[in-house]
Amino acid sequence: MKLLLGLLFLWLLSSVGNADHLEEQGKLKALRSFQFSCEQAMLPETPSSSVHALRPADIKTVAAIGSLQRTPRSGVHHEDLLQSPGKSLLEVSVEALAALISSFNPSVLHQSPQPGTKGVISDSQAIDLLHQAEEIVKLMKDSQMMDFQNDWKLITVFFSAENLCSSCASTQLKNCVLDNLEKLKAVLDFLYKKVPKAFINLVDSTELTTSSLACQDYNNASNPGRNQCICVGEHSTLDDNILRWSYQDAWEKLLESERYDQKDDFTVILQPSLQERNLLLRVGRDGFITTSKTQVETLEEDYIFMAVGLWNNMMEPVGRKQPYDFTKMLQVLCPSQENPYMFTYRNSNYSYSAETSNTKETSQERTYGTNIPCFDRSPSDTVPVSVHNLKPADIRVIAALGDSLTAGNGAASKPRDVLDVLTQYRGVSWSVGGNENISTVTTLANILREFNPSLIGYSIGTGKETTDNAALNQAVAGDRAEDVPAQVRRLVDRMKNDTRINFQTDWKLITLFIGGNDLCDFCNNPVHYSPENYTYNLQKALDILHREVPRAFVNLVTVLSIASLRELHTSENTCPKLLMRILCPCVINPKANSNELKKLVYFNRKYQERTRQLVESGRYDTTDDFTVVMQPFLMNVNMPKTQEGLPDSSYFAPDCFHFSQKSHSQAARALWNNMLEPLGKKTDNQQIEDEIVLKCPSEAEPFLRTYKNSNYTYPNQTPNYGSQLLCEDRSPSSPPATSVHSLKPADVKIIAALGDSLTAGTGIASDNLLDLDTEYRGLSWSIGGDGSLENVTTLPNIFREFNVTIMGYSTGMGSENDSNAFLNQAVPGAQAEHLPAQTRNLLRLMKTDPRIDFSADWKLITVHIGGNDLCNYCKDADHYSAVNFIRRIQETLDILHTQVPKALVSLVEVMDLLPLRQLFVDTQVQCPTYRADYLCSCALGGEENSTNLMMVREATRAYRLGIQRLVESGRYDTHENFTVVVQPFVQNLKIPLGQDGHPDVSYFSPDCFHPSQKGHSQLAKALWNAMLQPVGQKADSFDFTADIVLNCPTQNKPFLATYKNSNYTYPPVEPTNEPIENWGSDLLCSVQAPSSRVPTSVHELQPADIKVIGALGDSLTTAVGAKATDLQTDWRGLSWSIGGDGTLETQTTLPNILKKFNPNLYGFSTGSSKETAGFNVAERGTTVRNMSAQARELVELMRSSSKINFKEDWKLITVLVGGNDLCQYCLDKETYSVQKYVKHLQDTLDIFYEELPRVFVNMVEILEISGLRQVAASSSKCALTAKNACPCFLNPEENSSELQEIKRVNRDFQVEALQLINSGRYEEREDFAVVMQPFFRNTLLPLDSNGKPDLSFFAADCFHFSVRGYAEMAMALWNNMLEPVGEKQTYNNFTHDRSKLKCPKPEKPFLSTLRNSEFRNSDLNLEKTESSVPYWAVIVAAVAGVLAGSLFIWLVSGRAKRRQRETDTEKNIKMTSL
Known about the structure:
This protein is an alpha/beta fold.
């Protein structure tokens, strides 16, 4: 072996100069995908003498050793998956770390594994890790390229706990851990003694294997005294997880002992491992047996990902290091100015002291006994034949089914003995344990033994379900609901084969508790662990019991509210946090308020709800000797707390996941009490820390409570949604009606409908989320014809009471193409743009159906659309604008008007979606809140008062206003046989509330978005009544819970209401309000004084501290168009960011606001001449390449000014640029490329960063320029001017490739600019900050009374702002400056309000920066998106920039910059560059 390594070393030296080899040029190409923005560091004159002050630049050599072996499973290819034709983990990690360090020390060397094995070894060829350490030290000593004694070395040790024992007794398991620890100590001891100046990373590589975790012998030849661990039988995932944690815990304790911190030039740091197990077998791989090029490249990318994660943890203090997984893209962290070194235990100020428990240990022996206060413990006089007359003493046999909570894992374990959680203490299990007696051990079995000492079936002692001790406790650790039927089968067999049990006549009590493991894993496979599958598996198990087990009372204990477990994980205690994350990742890992956590809570509640529905179905109450009773005491359980209000870990086993005996005792008491409580009155929120006094059967109620002896009636599973119609006159017109204005209900012969999923009937009768694709068209409110009005309330069923021959309604289920859909042509997901196509299909069906006399039959057509448009409005306000929406409605109505004779079109207004948010924000409601974004992100997602909600609210108003104007124009009242009537009853939606004050979800399908049949019935009744209400007197609100009585046509008003028979006169167009000429503001801030001393940090800068103001940009900053009729003058004094004309009371500008804090502010512009421009260096026609020249000009102006103290005065500079570049991109893609845009922007900021002291830079985000198309379309004059001004956006056809390209470039501008600002490039100086101000990110389009863009915000050219628009910009910018990063308002609703200006907060009166907002760059989670949000102000931003160099900056998403990295020829010890 030594000869082999020696030959390797010679081979490596011989390859040093081979830098041109093609393979080597791209060897770390995957590393380029990471964001790396560390400043180039000067090499230190003298390397650090202490490992605790070791900087990356001090590292001379990078090396790694490791054991990465695995034991193949059956069916798995025997080739080690960590060995491939590409590079190994050891090799790539060494190269990647060296490449990163080369940014600080270009001469860093790295030591790679030998050729052939590449550091990965099979079991038969295993090189002992200690031997590897010896050889790598020898090679470093012999190397001529390094000074072994004086050069700093970074060595990574990959150490695996692959040789695990999992089925042995706990003492043998502890020996396995000790053996593993001794092996590791030997390696680290050797390095400690032999290697000077070394920083050792210890990385757990167990996760990188696919080991079967079989117990193996750890060098028993060298450890003859150590007991071998001989494991037999199966082991569970729980065993594997606890063992893994035990190994890591042992390693941590070894390092915390400071064994390797006695010298100042050596340390060992345990770095976190991957969160994801079986890395190479992740879902999505193309198969792990092949070694295709794609697979090899993917493996190497994974290894680089791991190496970057390792590097990042080296940059994090001990105690703050985080595991990393493949679901997150990593940004390479850099050493900070305050902490330029790699973190060790010592320089992290890490405390080795163990965290204290929240409970005080006492010397008093723990006892968990109970007194039974019941005097009557006698059985029935004769053995009962009915389960509803069953007394506790009548029970002869007790049994239990479930998981590790019933198996008793860790129930009697000593504190902190995590390994002992593998022991199943079945004798103290809450529902079936029988250790000792009730005086010392409280369990349900021991309670029942006080009533019947002859009870059999309880478990004792310890052991698995297969042992004799387990008896009829057949719970299996790690089992899920799908495993319970197998448990039932074993239980039935055991009972039948037990000679002590008379299977036919003995009464049996069986407790079933399952579901925790399902919830812990549901996020990995939501379909498999769906509530439907959960209850289906419960049903299978209960069906077996019901079918095969006579005389049985089954306790079905509801799954607990598992989310409370998170409190133990987040509090300071002795809980093994990593183990908790491993045992129950779907509960512990989600972030607070995340969709993942909401989904967990929803699944949890649905498990409970569907369990209740299963029991209350009556399925198990068909015989008198069997019942299933749901015991809900854990349903709303909370985390037990100490007197101090902290989570009390004494109720849990050492793993803080399973119950301790303390909890088992309480659960037994609560279960017993539940069994004696009548149905409908059972405790469902037992607090575990409360004293629970055992209840007793009473003389009046001596039985275990069932639905029958509780006089409890299960809720009706098939409710009736019929209605009564009390109308006496149901006759048609005589003679037949010739005018739509004299149309009686009985005259209608054809009924039809157009719309979306509401009309298609999506989910009406669904009872689970998986069924939501079903369209129950026969139950649809406006067109369904299933059943009759007696049991199904729909509009057609009401009309059938007047005309039994009416046709067109849909029945049953299916799509719009099915024959039973008939004239219901609604399509789920349809938007207004799809209505014309639906209309044409409807026309075709009506014309071709022989049953319909198209010319003579009166037709009622209900149209309802708009929900999906609103749900997408915030993603593309241009596409879903009110103008486009109304245009599509008009196209639809025009088709009907011109081609359909004898028709009344009932146009139901757009529904108000925002009230539906109540269903998704109320935590007590069982709604899938995690689906809010999927269902309707613009209305259901986000915070209250967010941009999206404001946009939806404004769009809803605009849609309605447009519909009203369209219909009231008289466009569809040109002849007597056609009209359109608007039905406004859904304008104001009132969400139904239950008796508990929470939303009543029974009115909705399982998604809580579409109405259920109950809701459709109410909508149908409201629609019918609206059709009879006169125009002008129609209801404009809808209450789901209202007792809606069907109205009848009267003798005076027998017709369906139209504008004409309602004597309704369409109102004239609303007059336009007189314009406001004064666009000033009122500043109501009480504190306007400067800091007590001039701050030295930009992060403590108050508004009054600013002495100088400046601005860069284009014609927006020169304020072209401020006086609307003059487009030739630069009205710099009115500029939003730099103008100083007038006062704040008459004109709102940023300087006028700041002058309220510092009247001596200097640099603002006045008037319109260049001479009075002050420090406003903006020019018309500016593109980003002109900005560096403006920056230099501004610096020189400030430097040469006698009015300011260049070094001491604080300066505020606002930058706005980029629109010209976008509008001209297609004319010269090279000049206006994304790369050059960012480069010029960087050059500009670099000038300020290098030359200007004490400066705060506002960077205003750029909007998406495509919104220009919408404003241009509002006026022919605007369209003509704009096409010349911004050809790249306005000339391309809609949906053309050219338009898509420029939109993509627009997004890339946004992405790259934001990445530059937040890269950390400008954060090293204490007196400098650049902050992105996003107030234009989501700007709402201001509409006039006609629903068109309000041009009062624009100058005469329709592109520049008027003085009103500039005032709005100033207010928004000021407010942004005060709002913390991450909480800045990202929209401006452009409504006149003199009091909109915010004030600095007294507790934090500073201008907001990244640092004082406590907002890290890593908090940014930006992605490229296909959809975006164009708004009106982008027109101003772009075209004003094109005409005279203006733009706005809107950055909505980011991507990691691709950096080009050249690499040298691979060699064992070589130069490495990044």
